[in-house]
Amino acid sequence: MTDLLKSLRYTLLALLASLLVGAVIIVVTDIDALKVGDYGKAFTTVLTAYRSLFEGSFWGLRSISNTITGTTPLLLSGLAVSVAFKAGLFNIGATGQMLAGGMTALWVGFTMSGPGWLQVPLAVLAGAIGGAIFGGIAGVLKARTGAHEVITTIMLNSIASFLVLWLLKTTLFQREGRPDPISKLIADEAHLPRLFGFLEGRSDLVAHSGFFVALLATYGYWYLLKRTTLGFELRATGLNSDAAKYAGMKSKTLMVVAMLLAGGFAGMAGATEVLGTYGYASTSLAGNIGFDAIAVALLGQSSPIGTLVSALLFGALQAGGRSMQANTDVPVDLIIVLRALIVMFVAAPLLVKAMFRVKSQFSAQGQTFRGWGG
Amino acid sequence: MKLELRGITKRFPGVVANDSVNLSIATGEVLALVGENGAGKSTLMNVLYGLYKADEGEILIDGASKKFNSPADAIASGIGMVHQHFMLVPVFSVAENVVLGSEPTRRLGALDIEQARKMVRDVSDRYNLNLDPDAIVEDLPVGVRQRVEIVKVLLRDAKIVVFDEPTAVLTPSEILEFFEIVRTLIRSGKGVVFITHKLKEALTIADRINVLRRGKVVGDADPKTASEAQIAEMMVGRPVQLTVDKKPADPKQVVLSVKDLSLIDPDGRTVVDQVSFEVRAGEIVGIAGVQGNGQTELVEALSGLRNANSGVVEIDGKDVTKASPRERHSLGMGHVPEDRQRQGLITGMSITENLVLTRYHDNEFCNGMKMRWSDASKKAKELVANYDIRTSDPDQLASTLSGGNQQKVIVARELSRKIGLVLAAQPTRGIDVGSIEYIHEQIVKERDAGTAVLIVSTELDEVMALSDRLLVMYRGKIVADLDPKKISHMDVGLYMAGSRPESAVGSHR
Predict the structure, then answer these.
(1) CA-CA distance, A63 to A324, in Å (whole number)?
(2) Of the candidates B344, B346, B370, which has its C-beta nearest A239's C-beta?
């Protein structure tokens, strides 16, 4: 528990540090104000920007809805990276696994007909299976041939995106009458219900129940790690694969299982995007989420709670960034800078300690990188 | 030069690692600092070397108080340190390693390797270190690597050299060479602090011995008059049994049978060559041998971590040559592995988790896939109490334990299972006397309960004391099957070196 508090404290300090550096960036890029030497105005810009960043992420129903929408795929794909980390694998392939899961969910979504209570879970499950199979490929390659998962998952990302491009041009998937690679719409019943659907006339509240899928998955991840023999085996392999072998664990099987699970989580991310956010699939379905997921897992130290908190943080920054751009001249790209800074400060605890003069008996350890297993 | 530590106190959260420690050392003498693991030896030396800041107390050099904020300050005051884990770049030459960090340069900053070579040669000649400046470090044996570290220290003009557990990684003959080097250092006017928990070595080389226990200096001993048992008692705080007390063995049926086992490593070298032997219930069979004669590979093959190239391994008459580690565990095999940090423990997991590492899948701790951690915790508490594992909380990480207690975790886990056979490789390597005594007692108790025990150790004293039957391994072959009560250390040593004593008592293969 104290460990948790301690790492939370550093994460908060890292957040504060990156907001400070971000403020400097806002000031020095406010060319107009600097030209006339109006530092007061530059200072005001910082305040306005950060205020709208906060308001855009938490202030009011609409902001919260946007934050939830952004968080959902980040959390699920963050779990995909986290579960692999725990087993000592570096999964860069969340993008490809998301695409695979998105496409299988989509297929169930527009071919099946039936009541929503049946169709939605089935489509999400199809997404998880599609992603798992795609993630499992990297696991099997590593177990059978020793091919490094970093290389194979990156390559599988490319394979997935071109596969999706081709699929979206086939008659099975392509929307009728469209020349571009865009899929058919899923059936109305296959949509993940909107969270605020009960409020009339608020079609701007786009958050959907995929968020609950993500929370449920996070609980499942926690349960797996802490309460099951499989979770114990995965953690043991990740921390010390020699000792795991000594203890009689099957390290190759565990590699495959870890990648199946990772792919399953990422596949659900793809599924909730298709079934909740878009209602169809396009080539930009996965966007940058698969890579942001790495930062989410890193920041959350691959723990269930950590991943949840950092996904919420990144989701909030994403939602707030848009309103910041709308209200001030500060571009939304600042969010990318802030996220990078947060990850950097978390990865360099010594820097944060020096900045805030945290007294410590022991020299700091790179907490973020513990247990990656190379 | 005279160095004095006065009233050094160093606290870490929850522990006082050093409690007003006084200590002095002058050039021309060897001071041995002995104590169990976790007694505060390394902390004290890290304070002296400027790595930690003492909470109280002062460091005096020739009577003048000094403040060390970093190792650089300590080095400037003439203090050098040779760490237990060497800090060398494996792919660099000896000369390159020695000058790393303060390289002699020519114009435009080009490395003057000729100068570096000369520096190494000079020091090597002066202190009889016999080092080739052009040898690549990764090709050198451990003992020689240690000499490279010594050269590094000497080149920085150290007057007082601190060695942290220098013999832990050395073979018996390398230890003798090391002592020669220490004597040369003393003759040329250096002072040496020798940190160790091996009492025999302290008695051999030291002029004075200081004993640390729980962060305090509990006594001084004069190596000329003190005995091993007296110092051990000071270290542990109670009388210690240094020899193993056991009844004659009562061997019953064969439990482990090895027939013509051969292992070939990836380079095509035969590392275990047609080995055959048996271990019976109720006896301890020891395998002695110098490190690197195939014992490691043999144990890996017996435990299922390595495939045999030919031959048969049977447990209780069942062929297990191709069986996985788990299958062997379920046939009643316990295994205390050679390298506790690498194989035996997961230091990033809790003590409880480590205590169930080889049995979490047992119905005792899980229902199918669901772990019952409450039962694991109950078992862990019981084992912590029964096996004298010193910890305040079994939920702490295994990395918080001292080496001896980590080993007790492994021994507790393996011996408390339902077993008929134990493989124990280097069961007491690098741990303190108190723990060694305890682990030996447990192994003998297990034998008396009818378990077959195979001990593999490079510590000749240990295998001689524990074994009921002693096998000697040399270059992958078993070269002797001896009765440890009827043979001298000297003769076993000859077998270990590959020759055969004239007065051979045991049967020779």
Answers:
(1) 12
(2) B346
